[in-house]
Amino acid sequence: MRKCITAEAIQQYAEASKDRADIHLNAEAAAKAGFRRPIAHGMYIMGLAQSMYLSENPMKWITAYSMKFEKPLLVETVVIFDFKESNDNVLVTVTAETEEVIASGIFSTKERFE
Fold first, then answer.
1. C-alpha dist (Å) from residue 103 to 33, 59, 114
2. Range of the domain at 58
3. Cα three-residue angle 64-70-71, rounded to 5 degrees
4. In angstroms, rounded to a whole number, what is the distance separating the alpha carbons of residues 65 and 71?
5. Exposed, middle or buried, 63 (CB in 10 Å: 0-12/13-18/19+)?
6. For 96-102, which contacts have Cβ atoms below 8 Å and span 24 or more sequence positions?
7. I need a surface site. Which of 12, 71, 110, 114 has the fewest CB within 10 A?
8. Ramachandran region, residue 76 (left: φ > 0; alpha: ψ -120 to 50; beta: rest)
9. pLDDT of 114
């Protein structure tokens, strides 16, 4: 699944989470930290991965998760979320269009009963 991580989405996440660190919102602060543009919040990326997986798998619950961030994700980057199921686990990889792995992790899942 492809998704462009927009400055608007990062702004909305910053407001909702109360994490308004300049590195996420301000180009000058990001440049001072060595980045070409502001970077996305790690928790935003992890939450987005969970949301995207569940939207495609509505009969599943995520019971546990972990994610390791390999590289910062620059705002206004298109990323690919890849989900590979293995029993009750889902291997998650977040890759930029440049094929750089941004993050990888695992979701533990179970069937949802209505």
1. 20, 25, 32
2. 2-111
3. 125
4. 19
5. exposed
6. 96/71, 100/70, 100/71, 101/70, 101/71, 102/45, 102/69, 102/70, 102/71, 102/72, 102/73
7. 114
8. left
9. 64
Q: Tell me how many domains the chain contains.
A: 1
How would you write the pLDDT of the chain (114 residues) with one tens digit per residue?
Answer: 999 999 999 999 999 999 999 999 999 999 999 999 999 999 999 999 999 999 999 999 999 999 999 999 999 999 999 999 998 899 999 999 889 999 999 999 999 876
Which pair of structure tokens corresponds to residue 8?
């608007």
What pTM did the predictor assign? 0.90
CATH assignment of the domain containing 50:
3.10.129.10
Tokens standing for residue 81: 């979320």
